[in-house]
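Troubleshooting log. The previous structure file for this entry was overwritten by mistake, so regenerating from the original sequence record. Sequence copied from the archived sheet and checked twice against the printout by T.R.
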Amino acid sequence: MRAAVVGGLIFFHTARIFDPLDFYVKDQPPNLPLTLFVFFAGLWGMPLLFVVSGLGAWYSLRSRTATGFVRERLARLLVPFLVGLLLVVPPQVYYRLRFQGQDPGSYWQFYGDFFQVHPGLKFPWLVRPDDPPDLFEPAHLWFLYFLLAYSLLLLPALLYLRGSGRQLLERLASFCARPWAIFLLALPVAVIEAALGTEESGGWNRYAFIPFLLYGFLFAADLRFGEAIRRHARAGLLVGVPAMLVLLGLGFYVSEVAGRDPAVAHDGWSVLWRFVKGIGAWAWIITIMGAAMSVVRRRASQPTPAVPHH
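Regenerated output below.
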């Protein structure tokens, strides 16, 4: 599932060229089918990647101490983030400026300006770009940094759930095994998104990814979570499809008729739009993960062909 989502990001970011939102390079006029694809994939793609990363955190801690877990996270996340920040991101920003008709000067002059930053806390970021030139950004590598920061932030809670908090985990798993109860996990995400508003980080508020990461850890810790997701895969469509229709219709009304941006405005309709967004995202994740689990179960139940002896 991780490979599918990461591979799908290639198509997603290519499609971003043809939607009406700001991006590094744009084509005009916007393409409606690709815009709908971007909207649909953006609804569940990055949240699902955080869920899968939470699954990986459980298995990592199963064979590592807390110190070993921190070292593993730094090696797998911080190192590629820093390498990408030095080698991959600056050319993207440089050619975006040139595409938009600006003159950033020579690349090496721009490269020095890009890293003009100062300490500034906007969790989880610890630095802010100087203004001017206001060039520094992590581009698509924000995911690596967020995953690192949230993994370290949640580490005490993850260790607690693996140890003395096991009883709490089992009670939660028992509750989520009830019919439709697994959908209630959408509420923390929906409340965060509705209250705080959407940001540029993957089309979500940066704090909304914390529950997704924690959910993945819980799913690996107790099989009842996964079984509940598998059983409710089709039910997820009953929630996810209407949520998509509401998001499209309500989003059109708020943006085109009322003249507000539902991602950041705090009027009632915009807050409702973001709340439905959180509900819909979780429903689609249940559908996708549940379908994947059903496929794995069917393959596991098939008899292994006998190997002929010569």
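The radius of gyration is 21 Å. Archived copy saved in two places this time.
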